[in-house]
Amino acid sequence: MDTVIQTTDLHKSFGPVKALDGLDLEVHAGEIHGFLGPNGAGKSTTLRILLGLARASSGSASVLGKDPWGDAVELHRRVASVPGDVSIWPNLSGGEAIDLISRLRGGVDDAAYRERKQQLCELFDFDPSKKGRAYSKGNRQKVALIAALVTPAEVYLLDEPTSGLDPLMEAVFTREVRRLSRENGASVLLSSHILSEVEQLADRVSIIRSGRIVDGGTLDSLRHLTRTEISFAQDSVDTTALAALSQIHDLAVAEGRIKFGVDSDRVHEVLPLLGSLGVKGLLVAPPSLEELFLRHYGDQVAPAAPEPTHDGAPHRRRHRTVAKTGA
Amino acid sequence: MPTVWVLYRQRLRRDRWQLLSWVLSIGVLAWFAVEAITKTFGDEASRAQVLKLATATPAILVLRGLARGPGLDSFTFFEIFTFLALLAGFMNTFMAVRHTRAEEESGRAELVSATAAGRWAPFAATVLHGIVANLVLAAAVALGFMGGGLAPAGSVVAGLATGAVGLAFLGVGLLAAEFFSTSRAANGISATLVMVAYLLRGFGDATGSVSPDGMTVTAAWPSWISPIGWGQQTFAYTGNQLWPLLLPVGLATVCGAVVVLIMSRRDVGASILVGRRGRWEARPWLRGPFALAWRLQQGSIIGWCAGGFATGLITGSLGSAIQSTLNSNASITAALREMIQAQGTSMTQLLVAALFEIAGVLAAACGVQAILRMRQEEAAGTAEFVLSEPVGRVRWLGSFMGLGAISVVLVMAFTALGAWLSLVASGDTSTAVGDVWATGVAQLPAALIYLAVPAVVFVVWPRATIPAGWALLGIGVVLGVYGGMVGLDQKIVDLSPFTHTPVVTDTGTDWSGGFWMLGIAAVIAVIALVTVPRREVGTA
Fold first, then answer.
1. Is the dihedral of CA A98, A104, A105, A109 positive or negative?
2. Domain made up of A3-222: CATH architecture
3. So what's the ipTM on this one?
4. Structure confidence by residue, pLDDT tens digits, B520-539
5. Nearest-CA distance from A183 to chain B in Å?
6. In chain A, which residues fall in CATH 3.40.50.300?
7. Partner residue opposite A81 with nearest CB, options B275, B277, B388
8. Which CATH number fits the domain A225-326, given the four candidates 3.90.228, 3.30.420, 3.40.50, 3.30.70?
9. What would the 3-class secondary structure string for B26-86 be?
10. pLDDT tens across B396-405, in order?
């Protein structure tokens, strides 16, 4: 498969701060690649280097086989982007800003362009006639999104593109990006700390922590490393048989339900026993990226670490999930 | 109320350097005026001669004030007070808008009003801040005049007059902030009102009645509708009347009351006039970084050109008036020569050269601003937007510098046009009429240096662009325009580009300084353009 974006041992320092510390990233042609990490992990720095706005301290980066710093102008004809922190001109209207950006990219002002712009404005429920200073954060984000989506490109570099959008608009965004990838065969590098969004869209994921990739691969391959959560009503089920199984971890009873985790690739081995126990109200929750994420950021969730029993486990987990979204 | 106190301290802290530099500059200017006048027009006889010329020349009165005899103190008040009051006006309108509309526009006001401070405490803190600032300003002006050796009582009156005018414009600024939804518009309209007040008073003074000996002028009615005119009516040193100051203080009170009335009815963030809606689509010409640079700066470029045109008109009318009133006046000619350092034959030429130097400063400021705008684009993050598209850094920088160069030329063209029109209208037939164009061209090299140097700073040390741009201009003006007047060492004066601006005379113009500066500007500009591709883009 062709590689459209490749970085090798990429380093970037701001004075004593190492923003990137040997980042190896590879994005294949035609894929939507999720780039996951909390704020400050180096996502925006990576994207700025790929756009030629910042220069790598060492290591190499290439986009479409070219040097993003040296060949910036040539590359930008083929690359569309949404910056991480969108600001627009206070005295230009949203419509003017969108037109300007697309003209800068070399787009033509033909009927097809106008139709597409009109269509996107309607889809995103965006009023292009307000002055830039009058837009809310979400609406500024829409200016950048529409400007990026309105003219076709081969590669899209999207830096937390849905920040500030409401769930309805997020759904519109997800649909549009999927369409780009399926219909136009475009490659998308989607940086995010919103896991559900990446989970819905991405073919492959790279997880960045402190400036380096700590994990990556297809969603399926990553799921092997996670556990599926199973729970059912407590009733009068005898759990001793379950507790004896080696595939089962963190067995706990909470709020009248029995809960435990199973290695995701071994779920089928547990099911016969559940059948024989005649459990009621069975819930099987597939592993989420959330959990994957926690493995790399929640230092206590090492796979083999013994979990506290009973109420402790779910509480702690819920707590950490909250802390993560706030990060 | 403690919240008012907290907010007042926040305003004080935020403004500490800005307000300090305003107050100190105005105070130092007062002192400097006394020093300069003592030096140039040391004896009463020469001051009487200048006053005679001035009162016979309405155009001079526009830029000065109401004459009250040739004493050093009253002459100083005549020369400088209206200018001090003009600066006090700007200081106050900017201060008023900065703490009201700008805060609402940025959303910070909402943050504050959502606390126990409510809607009124921020307003009260701003008013308190303004009153204290104007009291300090009054003290600074009084001390400046006293430091120059003028009578203490009159100096205090002059200081109070400056502070009272400032207070009136504080009210005007606060009121303007209620009307407009953006700080830009509120600043624009209130600064325009300050200018209008200055010109109204100028018109009233110029059309006033002159005493038979030509030593005093009594203002006509237009001066009485201007806060700066009210301040003049104190006639510090000769009259020392304080009652006219009731007028500016009263105006400030009325404005404050209207603001309270409006604020008690409107939402936080709302304004009486609603901002215009924008266009659905960009105009066809808005493509490329040059068009963007123009779209972002068209308003200010038009403003600079209007300023140049007005300077030109004044230059022309002054020049012809002086020429016809007084063919040779040794002390004034000498003073002009100190300023521009050349041996011209015609008074008009000297005057054109001197006043065009001011227009040259305007043009240089316009050039500086073109580069600063680029830095603002970068700091705001919109530059990143543009540079993420197929726009090379050289083309981007080149566009802003190119537009800067064009606007510098435009400002001087409008200045020359204004001077030419007023000279032709006055029937002046001296060679100066044709020379205004050459004199306009002569100002370009220095102004272009002020385009090129900030551009290099922008490339190598982005964060310093804005302070360095204005500081370099300020130093250049002080050294080049006023340095000779106060007798600074020639080596220091030579550091300013403005010193080397060619002076057009009919005895042969030495253009070499201009060519040198043009060459230097070109080399510096090329350095900026060659090094910019190596520079990262960032907001820090």
1. positive
2. 3-Layer(aba) Sandwich (3.40)
3. 0.75
4. 999 999 999 999 998 888 76
5. 23
6. 3-222
7. B388
8. 3.30.70
9. HHHHHHHHHHHHHHHCCCHHHHHHHHHHHHHCHHHHHHCCCCECCCHHHHHHHHHHHHHHH
10. 999 999 999 9
